[in-house]
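Sequence, please.
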């Protein structure tokens, strides 16, 4: 067991990935996870095994799975052990196992994790004390709000947030953090039952332009929508902030039984705005909820050939969800040769996927046969089609023969077909995967010219 390997695994989701681990858990393969943790030193397997054993009441076995990682100096295993102990009711032992020293208290990450543990142990006051020195970090302030929800301490939380929200709306706000103080203040006011105060405070900030980030604007729109403040949303959503919040006004109208008015507003902005495309998707969603799929497609059509293809992809999935697979395929096939060339792997994988979903498997395989064999993702797409029609061994052979296919893709197929032990046995070890990653990085570095950027 090597700390460098474990850090690489944690950073890149290498080794036996969380996705594979989840599949093994779903199939009840806890013993296989224990074995992989012990024999291969795989952290994700150890973590999942410890959690599953703990849930089953096998506390000592769970601790035993984690112990080699703790001995190796892997800090995340210490925290996982504390969670197992806490779940077993050994609260003081759990807290003592990870209680931060002076250096740890200076770390926002350590304090975050310890505060979460304290909150789960019912020691909320201590959790707040641990977090307080770090509340000028957005994510720590969010953690404070999350941990204290429904805990009867909203006034205490507001006392901590209020001065930060005040500074965020002040003259020096552009250099101030946390940038989310105002919307979190409104959130806590709302959950404390002080809705009118939340609306007035945040509304005044928005009206005066005394806020830092778009998220605050969105938080205000969501607050208004939750409480049916349609008129305030109309003023907000049809003014200078329409690009960011018109969709929330339209949703509020729809919630209020005024879907026709919502449609009219969205169509107006789609037709007249300088940058109309930001309004297309809310209108498409509204029309699709009413079953008006053809109209939804026509709303999106002017943007289908755009460089990023994001809205087009959304419409393709909308048609898929509506069961209109042939229509989705027809839209794909309407694209220009230039579009197909620019989005070649995306286009081909989606076309094969839609053919497969439509049950046109032989047509999908024939189409795949016309494509360059080294096209990115093609092997996986063909293997999926073969698996769909029960030709599992052919799919497996195809994946195994392609050196560009990740070992995890082979393992996933095996696990889906009840061959979990073979899947894990066929995976390269964590150390081997890390070494291969280093070789790829070195080769990429060597291929770069002296003026090429590092990424």
């Amino acid at each position: 067991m090597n700390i460098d390997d474990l850090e690489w695994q944690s950073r890149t989701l290498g080794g036996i990935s969380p996705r594979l681990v989840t599949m093994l858990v779903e199939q009840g393969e806890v013993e296989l996870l224990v074995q992989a943790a012990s024999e291969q030193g795989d952290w994700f397997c150890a973590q999942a095994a410890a959690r599953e054993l703990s849930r089953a009441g096998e506390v000592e076995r769970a601790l035993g799975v984690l112990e080699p990682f703790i001995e190796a100096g892997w800090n995340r295993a210490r925290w996982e052990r504390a969670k197992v102990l806490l779940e077993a009711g050994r609260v003081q032992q759990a807290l003592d196992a990870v209680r931060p020293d002076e250096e740890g208290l200076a770390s926002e990450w350590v304090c975050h994790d310890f505060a979460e543990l304290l909150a789960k142990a019912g020691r909320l006051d201590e959790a707040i004390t641990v977090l307080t020195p770090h509340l000028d970090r957005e994510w720590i302030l969010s953690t404070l709000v999350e941990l204290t929800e429904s805990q009867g301490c909203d006034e205490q939380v507001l006392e901590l947030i209020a001065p930060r929200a005040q500074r965020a709306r002040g003259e020096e706000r552009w250099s101030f953090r946390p940038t989310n103080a105002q919307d979190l203040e409104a959130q806590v006011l709302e959950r404390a039952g002080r809705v009118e105060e939340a609306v007035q405070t945040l509304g005044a900030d928005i009206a005066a332009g005394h806020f830092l980030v778009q998220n605050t604007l969105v938080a205000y729109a969501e607050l208004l929508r939750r409480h049916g403040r349609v008129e305030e949303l109309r003023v907000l959503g049809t003014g200078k902030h329409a690009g960011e919040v018109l969709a929330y006004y339209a949703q509020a109208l729809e919630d209020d039984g005024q879907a026709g008015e919502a449609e009219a507003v969205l169509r107006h902005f789609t037709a007249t705005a300088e940058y109309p495309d930001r309004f297309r998707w809310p209108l498409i969603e509204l029309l699709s909820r009413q079953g008006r799929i053809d109209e939804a497609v026509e709303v999106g059509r002017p943007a289908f050939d755009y460089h990023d293809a994001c809205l087009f992809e959304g419409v393709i999935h909308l048609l898929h969800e509506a069961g209109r697979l042939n229509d989705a395929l027809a839209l794909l096939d309407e694209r220009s040769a230039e579009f197909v060339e620019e989005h070649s792997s995306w286009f081909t994988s989606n076309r094969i996927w839609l053919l497969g979903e439509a049950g046109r498997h032989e047509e999908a395989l024939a189409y795949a046969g016309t494509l360059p064999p080294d096209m990115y993702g093609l092997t996986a797409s063909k293997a999926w089609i073969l698996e769909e029609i029960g030709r599992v061994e052919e799919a497996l052979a195809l994946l195994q023969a392609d050196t560009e296919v990740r070992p995890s893709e082979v393992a996933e197929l095996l696990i889906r077909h009840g061959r979990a032990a073979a899947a894990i046995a066929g995976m390269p070890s964590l150390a081997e995967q890390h070494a291969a990653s280093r070789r790829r990085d070195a080769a990429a570095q060597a291929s770069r010219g002296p003026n090429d950027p590092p990424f």
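The longest helix spans residues 430-447.
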